[in-house]
Design a protein that fits this description.
The complex is a heterodimer of chains A (666) and B (515). With 666 residues, chain A is an alpha+beta fold. Helices cover 16% and strands 35% of the residues of chain A. In chain A, 53% of the residues are buried. In chain B, strands 19, 20, 21, 22 and 23 form a five-stranded antiparallel beta sheet that branches. Classes of the chains: A alpha+beta (666), B mainly beta (515). At the A-B interface, strand 43 and helix 13 of A face strand 18, strand 21 and strand 23 of B.
């Protein structure tokens, strides 16, 4: 912690030097309601897997743990055969576009490598560490790393916290080599050339050089620490060339970049830079004793949710307190619907909504944020990067009758006192697929920071800053071609915006969305995004509710064209499930498992037309099988069921009963 | 071969004459009888008997304007054991055995002689033909092991005979994989387009397995497809969907409908197609089913007592339709309804011993469900259904009656009967239903168009009733129980017209003394 602080201080000077402020940016007077009232929840980052791991090029692999075998389904003919695995096979991963798979047998402590061709499969078994439950396959399919992921282990299941195996998968020469890595591995990254793997552990990044392991056998992997304090909770990315690892801890503004060759650690503390975009501490009147009494209980709550490192005075607490509002919002029977069953997101959104009602000019979903007209949204005008000032010292507009909000009439008689604002943290950090830059987002200030890798960390490059004045952005997703980024927030259901940031120009264009964002994924061609929307609590079919409420309460997703900003909303009766984008990018397949809707949506990414394909049982997984141009949909069925959908025609064929199919004999 | 009478046969016939006339000439005669005839068959314009004693086939022409009381004889040179008309052909198939030579043959017999002989390796006891008469499968029946005197038989041995071919190459012997007690029955698929080649498959049904054998390539190995591992599951019905290249199966002891898609092989198999299995959850005990819909949207209608299900096989999606009256059979038809002039696919759902049937309109049935359902009272209930033309169905009552159901009008016209009507025969070419009550010297018939019942008195009781639709005029022949041979030949268009009626007697021995 001490060294981090020193580094932070040192980097602070660098950060100041490196800051570039877009034209028109103001400083010192910017604030947002969220930063002064109640911290919003962390941004929700949902991992989308466009390709689930059980599909090979032509075959789909389904594990049958009870029968100790793996069903291999030919997606072209639906013919099924089984291949014997070890004892209790459970975890399976296919090998990079081939008809081969690795399956971990949890009872026999080994791995079976399956290769399929011409309707038949062969199996090779290698011993691995007991308790191994995770597989990561190199992009070239020549190596895999298997390890015990303690975050995915069930009750009573344990494995080694530092022993892993490297699998050499060349046909005929399959073998496993044990390696020792840092404590508690949680993720494996690979260099793009597949020659090295990087094991993310609580001790840092353990580097596996496959050629070296092939030559020298089992050994202790070289470990590169991510800082003395970096023991856990780090979000780590590795550049495709394997030269750098980029990390951040949730809730911090300190970023870490480590040179994986020499171990040099570069810390980039963005707090000073961020501070330049913070508004000057607003001058606000303190509450009267009566006010203090009214908000007292909530004040304690609010102080606790504010950053503990910041001094919070009684006056601060009483003024910035949003606790009563939040409490009221979460309280069942209040004017908010958040207390139903919305969970954290809806509760936060509802709370924010209430808070925003205390602010002037609160006409849109973001409270005091100025309303954006819909026309400019769709035309994609660049966001003005000027700051806005929210006069939070002004009297609130209206306050819900049931909410004991602080009233400005009461504080008007007191002396003004400056507010100490909590520090702003990076809420999301995304490393570009090219590995040449990263984008960090600070939601509190709607800041977007573009960081060259490694330049921004070594002082060789500046940090480009974009402030989206009237937007709430806390998450970022960079396109696969690294040319654009989507900026949005996942914590406010009523934030109906998404911004497209052009990486080269630094210009961001806002586009209106019909519903709040829950998660975003971008197609491989970087042209289309799949946006899953948030759903507000409540039944959309409830009688008497208006159309907007129906929409807000509905599940749904949008397909978003990055080039034009055009989006199409598709509502649904069930939560958006797993999805897959077919390799040629023509169609997106989305699963829905609801009481009345068990189906697949086939979304044509040229026309955005959605075909609804009904299923006979709950869908659980989806993936592409390239050779046959089909998508498989795994379904929950006691005998095993997979549907195959021709991604060009939408024609559907199902196969049920893997074991029976495997017993068809010629 | 025609009329080439062997010395043994000649001896038998003379002995019969010596013994006197009037002995029963039915197939149940004992070894002391002069003739031992299997039940007669109708072959175009001939009544045909097979004499197991004389090893002959006897043909009597009833197609002439004035039928003669004489028979043509064809020597078989072995003892006929099984006879049946070859489908869609003017031949009789007869499996004959020669105990002395220990040979078994399948013969294709015509009025002019034995057209072809096929040597068989095993003395099987069952012939199963394809509908088009192209193939005959010779095999053991399900109870052969109990009835056969041999102490070693393999019930999974079969012979596939291509009846369009001659010689050894026409017979392919196959030993199937054995399951349980062996094959229970065999079916032929309709002509399917598999892997770009039109062909039929032989489907051999075991307890819970089916074997699939490509009849275009009988030398290729059979597939065996197991539908369940449970010993309680027993396949009950198969249906075929040509449009989908699928076989549907129902089984007792299972709540599922099984679907066997037949797909082109992608390699690795000797056959150029491969089967797979799907299980479609239907309901408790599906009892009957029929595929319906268009080629692009094929579905399956299943009935299981108190409900019907529409199953989309491709997605395994099932739509439940509760029924107000029980149904365990389904009959698909195309026609109008009293409420809808469009000719569309509809279904009749019925059950034995139920006094009501259901009509289900199949267009949009998954959306409309019970709104597409209508019920109809059928007085007396149904024990058996005979499909007639023009969407007419003969619903035979359990107790001496019949209803003619008009599927388009959705009406039931009852006809009372004093006799059981289980043996009713329908002639669509003459628009008549024929009834020959056991032991009665009368022939009943009903005009399908007018539902007018009639009957004609005969001199003697009827042993067999044979219909000849292709003679001019169409004729109906009542064979009487008489050792010398006796029959009444009537016009099928006007049975009561005595001028067109002919009685033939003594034809078994007509001209015998000349020989």
């Amino acid at each position: 912690m001490d060294s981090a602080a020193e580094d932070s201080s040192a980097l602070g000077a660098f950060t100041g030097d490196g800051v570039t402020t877009p034209t028109g940016a103001a400083s010192g007077t910017t604030t947002t309601p969220a930063s002064t009232m109640t911290p919003l929840p962390d941004e929700v980052e949902t991992t989308f897997e466009f390709e689930l791991p059980h599909a090979g090029d032509r075959y789909v692999y389904a594990v049958n743990t009870e029968r100790d075998n793996v069903a291999v389904i030919d997606a072209s003919t639906l013919a099924i055969h089984t291949v014997e695995a070890g004892d209790a096979p459970r975890y399976l991963q296919t090998l990079a576009g081939t008809d081969a798979a690795v399956v971990l047998n949890v009872a026999s402590g080994d791995a079976t490598i399956i290769r399929s061709a011409n309707g038949k499969s062969t199996a090779t078994t290698v011993d691995v560490q007991e308790g191994t439950n995770a597989i990561a396959v190199a992009p070239d399919g020549k190596h895999a790393v298997v390890f015990f992921d303690s975050t995915h282990s069930g009750a009573g299941v344990s494995g080694s916290y530092q022993d892993i195996n490297v699998l050499f998968l060349e046909q005929g020469e399959e073998r496993a080599v044990g390696m020792t890595v840092g404590f508690r591995p949680s993720a494996i990254k690979f260099s793009a050339d597949g020659k090295r793997a990087f094991v993310v552990t609580e001790d840092g990044v353990s580097i596996l050089d496959f050629a070296d392991i092939d030559e020298n056998g089992a050994q202790i992997a070289r470990n590169v620490p991510l800082g003395d304090d970096a023991t856990e909770s780090l979000d780590v990315s590795v550049t495709p060339d394997g030269n750098y690892a980029l990390a951040r801890r949730e809730g911090e503004s300190l970023l870490r970049l480590v040179d994986l060759e020499n171990g040099d650690l570069h810390l980039l503390d963005l707090s000073d830079l961020i501070a330049e975009y913070r508004p000057e501490s607003p001058v606000i009147p303190p509450p009267t004793p009566m006010d203090a009494g009214v908000v007292d209980s909530g004040a304690a709550s609010d102080a606790s949710v504010a950053d503990a490192s910041e001094p919070v005075t009684a006056v601060d607490a009483s003024f910035v307190d949003a606790g009563p509002l939040l409490d009221a919002a979460l309280d069942a029977g209040s004017t908010s619907k958040a207390a139903d069953d919305a969970g954290e997101l809806d509760a936060a959104a509802a709370a924010l909504s209430q808070l925003e009602q205390t602010l002037p000019s609160s006409s849109n979903g973001l409270g005091a944020l100025p309303e954006m007209s819909s026309a400019p949204d769709t035309t994609g005008d660049a966001v003005p990067t000027t700051s806005i000032t929210v006069p939070i010292t002004s009297a609130p507009g209206t306050s819900p009758a049931s909410t004991p909000a602080p009233t400005m009439s009461m504080v008007a008689t007191a002396q003004p006192v400056p507010v100490v604002l909590p520090p702003s943290a990076v809420t999301d950090l995304d490393l570009a697929p090219s590995g040449t830059f990263a984008v960090a987002v600070v939601r509190d200030l709607s800041l977007v920071l573009q960081l060259a890798v490694p330049g921004a960390f070594t002082g060789e490059s500046e940090v480009r800053v974009v402030q989206l004045d009237d937007q709430l952005v806390g998450s970022v997703t960079i396109t696969p071609n690294s040319e654009q980024a989507l900026l949005y927030t996942t914590v406010v259901a009523t934030a109906l915006r998404i911004n497209v940031l052009d990486i080269d120009s630094g210009e961001a264009k806002p586009y209106r969305l019909p519903k709040g964002v829950q998660s975003v994924a971008i197609a491989d061609d970087s042209k289309t995004a799949f946006i899953v929307h948030q759903k507000e609590a409540g039944d959309p079919d409830q009688a008497g509710i208006d159309a907007d409420t129906v929409l807000a309460r509905s599940y749904g997703y949008s397909v978003f064209e990055l080039g034009t900003g055009f989006s199409k909303l598709q509502t649904a009766k069930a939560p958006v499930g797993p999805s897959t984008l077919v390799p040629d990018g023509s169609n997106l397949f989305v699963l829905f498992d609801g009481a009345t809707e068990r189906e697949v949506h086939r979304v044509n990414l040229t026309s955005f037309i959605v075909d609804h394909i009904a299923l006979g049982s709950p869908p659980t997984s989806v993936g592409s099988v390239p050779r046959s141009k089909r998508v498989f949909v795994g379904q929950d069925h006691p005998d095993g069921r997979i549907a195959f959908i021709d991604w060009e025609t939408g024609d559907l064929e199902s196969v049920t009963g893997f074991e029976l199919n495997s017993r068809i004999r010629e | 071969m025609k009329r080439t009478v062997s010395s043994r046969a000649r001896h038998v016939r003379r002995a019969a004459l010596m013994a006197g006339l009037g002995l029963s000439a039915c197939g149940g005669m004992n070894e002391h009888d002069s003739m031992s005839l299997l039940p007669p068959l109708a072959l175009d314009r001939h009544v045909v008997w097979f004499d197991t004693q004389a090893e002959q086939a006897l043909f009597l022409d009833v197609g002439a304007s004035q039928p003669k009381s004489s028979v043509e004889r064809v020597e078989l040179e072995a003892t006929p054991r099984i006879v049946q008309r070859r489908n869609a052909s003017n031949e009789i198939l007869s499996m004959v055995v020669d105990d002395e030579k220990e040979t078994t043959e399948l013969l294709a017999v015509t009025p002019t002689g034995v057209a072809r002989r096929y040597d068989l390796e095993t003395r099987w006891d069952t012939i199963t033909q394809s509908e088009d008469g192209h193939y005959a499968i010779i095999h053991f029946g399900p109870n052969s092991a109990e009835s056969d005197e041999r102490f070693l038989i393999n019930p999974s041995e079969i012979a596939i005979v291509d009846l369009t071919e001659k010689g050894e190459s026409a017979v392919v012997n196959v030993t199937l994989r054995s399951y349980d007690a062996g094959p229970r029955w065999m079916e032929f698929t309709p002509e399917l387009d598999l892997a770009g080649e039109k062909r039929r498959l032989l489907v051999v049904v075991f307890q819970a397995q089916i074997a699939l054998l490509d009849l275009n390539h009988p030398e290729r190995p059979a597939y065996t497809v197991e539908l369940s591992e449970s010993p309680a599951v027993s396949i009950a019905k198969l249906r075929y969907s040509v449009e989908e290249n699928k076989i549907y199966a129902l089984a007792s002891g299972s709540n599922d409908v099984y679907v066997v898609p037949l797909l082109p092989s992608a390699g690795g198999t000797e056959n150029d197609f491969v089967p797979s299995v799907n299980q479609l959850g239907a309901d408790a005990g599906p009892l009957d089913m029929v595929p319906f819909g268009t080629a692009s949207q094929r579905r399956l209608l299943v009935v299981s007592g108190s409900s019907a299900q529409v199953v989309e096989a491709s997605s395994s999606r099932v739509t439940q339709i509760p029924l107000t009256t029980q149904a365990d059979h389904v009959l698909l038809f195309e026609g109008t309804s009293p409420f809808d002039g469009e000719v569309e696919q509809r279904a009749l759902l019925y059950s034995a011993n139920q006094a009501r049937v259901s009509f289900l309109d199949l267009v949009d049935v998954e959306e409309r469900t019970t709104r597409n359902l209508e019920t109809l009272n059928v007085p007396g209930g149904i024990s058996q259904v005979v499909v007639l033309n023009d969407n007419l169905v003969l619903a035979i009552q359990p107790n001496n009656g019949v209803n003619v159901l008009n599927l388009q009008e959705r009406t039931a016209s009852p006809i009372q009967a004093k006799i059981p009507l289980n043996s009713v025969q329908a002639s669509l070419k003459t628009d008549r239903l024929w009834v020959s009550p056991d032991g009665a010297a009368a022939l009943g018939y009903i005009d399908i168009n007018t539902l007018h019942p009639s009957q004609v008195k005969l001199d003697r009781s009827i042993q067999s009733l044979l219909l000849f639709n292709d003679t001019k005029p169409p004729r109906v022949v009542a064979v009487h129980p008489d050792a010398q041979g006796a029959m009444s030949v009537l016009s099928a268009l006007d049975p009561s017209d005595s001028k067109q009626a002919v009685t033939l007697d003594g034809f078994f021995f007509e001209g015998a003394l000349d020989q």
